[in-house]
Model the fold of this input.
Amino acid sequence: MLIFVNYLKEYFRQIQYKSLLLTTLFVAILIALNFSIGIEKRIYALHFPFSLISFILFYGIVFGAGFWFQSIDPRAPTFNNKKMFIIYYSMAVIGFSLKQVHWQIPFANVLKFPWNIYWTRVLQLPLKLLMTLMILFFARKIDDDNDSFFGLTTKNFKPKPYLIILLFLIPLVALAATQPDFLHAYPKVKYINFIDGQVQTPWLWKMIYEISYSLDFVSIELFFRGFLVVGFIRFAGINAILPMAAFYCTIHFGKPLGECISSYFGGLALGVIAYRTRSIFGGLIVHLGLAWMMEFFGYASRIVMH
Done:
């Protein structure tokens, strides 16, 4: 744990506080707007391709603002290789927008209920992980200056500190699981409860769904800590962290308010760790562990309440 504290201390010694304040204020305004007028809900209510275009514009503004807030500081370092930065920036915004829209699974549409809905929900996330990997492979193909494949390295990785973090998170998640807004969102497996009564072993099909759900966190860590931090270090150095944290917070707009707010600070912390270690495996342990805890406590709370 001490090493993480040192990472954060070093980060706050280097960061421009004006940039940090402006980015945090910007994120706070976005959160307030979302939970009052529903930014994400309004985008999802649009039909494709308008939903995709709206996500591209929204994420483009958020991610771009994160860099702009830092560039206006006269002490901020200049960006390296602006042409490649613009390519990476465009790939990030468009790629994640494609991930956020609903995907139709062609073969699932010809199946009967419940399998048409089940396979559409189960297969979307693995396919979106595959898309994320393809984006990263393409980025590496056109620009091979990164010393690792966007944080997929165990060179500076030690699992013990991250497991300790998860131990500290257990009572916090257990407490959150007593709140109505938490139970409204978790466990995610409730979204396939329609499988009950349709098959003899519903737990097996729910386990397959949970595995699919877990793959989404691999995709998230690869994208945010791998691509947006490790991949952008060569352009912006330490200034790659804040724009990622702002972007990361906005993908939690459909989650409970407490989770959305904490995602900004959690994303900032995980970004610092990825920046220092050049590895995403620590963040992956924390993210996956937290997701499984939220599923477990959400499921357990529902059993106790009923």
User: Anything to note?
Assistant: The mean pLDDT is 89. Residues 214 and 292 are 8 Å apart (CA to CA).
